[in-house]
Specification:
86 residues
Length: 86
């Protein structure tokens, strides 16, 4: 009976050690996963800043082009009026 109880106690201890080891590995894996996701999030945020800057630059360029087109259109209208009146 004592032999059986010792074996049972040993099995419990071994099982507890295995469970602790598995928990430890899972903790490390989850920690690494969180760190990886945080790095990915940081890269996405940096990319978002860059894309926002590019969009703002593109919008400024479009506004400038619109102004130039409007100015050119006004110039063309004036030339047509001058040509028609001559």
């Amino acid at each position: 009976m004592l032999k059986c109880e010792m074996r049972s106690h040993q099995e419990m201890a071994v099982n507890q050690i295995r469970k602790t080891t598995e928990d430890s590995h899972q903790f490390i894996w989850r920690n690494n996963k969180v760190a990886e996701e945080q790095r990915h999030l940081k890269l996405l945020e940096e990319s978002n800043v860059i894309m926002r800057e590019r969009l703002e630059n593109a919008m400024r360029e479009i506004d400038l082009l619109r102004q130039k087109i409007k100015w050119q259109h006004e110039q063309n209208k004036e030339e047509v009026i001058v040509t028609e009146s001559s």
